[in-house]
């Protein structure tokens, strides 16, 4: 049964190969000073930077640049961004890039006018934002995180090796996001498939929880089937617009707060993956792929009915003459074969994890209680060992 909920998502989406025109409709709604946030330079290589500067100038905006957002943005970078935003009293933040750029923009949006250390207040203590929030718009160039239409913001403290994600409320969601699948064509293959698995993981984190019948599970099965189909095409031909556009939209819906409504959720793959990220700075989607199979094989007996359903409805396992365990196991075997086929990292050693890190990674893993099995510290260590 669906639980009670309130649903609202304030992000306006401009989608398609002409989506950038939407910027001309949005910019007049905000003041003169635009803080342009981007990463390490990919937007310059694909010509998007020049296009955006031109549109900002045509709209008579003063541009304050904040480049150099790294994958897995750090708290030190956040402090720099807050200073730039506050000193210049910016009216709008325009984030152009992948999830890291969008996440960082949200953290700056919420933190620039915060009177105390935002890491303590908004990431360690997870307090509600009670200061002025700077509005944000996003132009997305890499898919996977869903950051373009949610309140998620993940920041890494390199000193303490903590990677913490928080979900801001809808005041910090992007006011608008521009989604042109063509911008994603240039994403390197490793990042591209990591993003694909991030999408799958977001769906599975919300799917593998609960015993009830709810609409969300049916939607999620459809989203994953679409992802599996389109990702196979995209791996062979990254410039296939149909596949890339379907994946982009699937990615947004996987984590734009719709399918989580009225149901319980797991999120332990992400908790373990983030703890690994805090130690290694590894690509987010690959931290998830490396631990997923050991994790799901371990919890399968506790949520057998759902793993059986997953095997049949997503992986087309024929249930005839098989026990529930055999069906569920075959589903996970097919998932593993797909993961290897598209080139995902399947163990944490390949991400730079060494034996001496396991205890620290397990200690930095937040243990959540929404999944089929509440893990103990020792069980997390066992899963990490199985992922080596
Ligand atoms: O920095 P540039 O030069 O732009 O290069 C980036 C970066 O090196 C490159 N890239 C992006 N678009 C490109 C491109 N290269 C060529 N052509 C393009 N069009 O890709 C690299 C990775 O970018 P990044 O933004 O780090 O990737 P992603 O979108 O996967 O974001 C990862 C971050 O998002 C967090 C992750 O933890 C990680 O910190 N997450 C955010 C979530 C949310 N907001 O809800 C949820 C997720 O679970 C995730 O935790
Ligand atoms: Zn993720």
Automatic annotation (TrEMBL):
One cellular component term from this protein's GO annotations in UniProt: cytosol
Lineage of the species this protein comes from: Bacteria, Bacillati, Bacillota, Clostridia, Lachnospirales
Cross-referenced PANTHER family: ALCOHOL DEHYDROGENASE YQHD
Keyword Oxidoreductase found: yes
Keyword Oxidoreductase assigned: yes
The entry's keywords: Oxidoreductase
Protein name: Iron-containing alcohol dehydrogenase
Organism: Defluviitalea raffinosedens
SUPFAM superfamilies linked to this entry: Dehydroquinate synthase-like
Signal peptide from the UniProt entry: none
Ranges of residues in domain Alcohol dehydrogenase iron-type/glycerol dehydrogenase GldA: 10-181
Location of the Fe-containing alcohol dehydrogenase-like C-terminal domain: 193-388
Entry GO MF terms: alcohol dehydrogenase (NADP+) activity; butanol dehydrogenase (NAD+) activity; metal ion binding; methylglyoxal reductase (NADPH) (acetol producing) activity
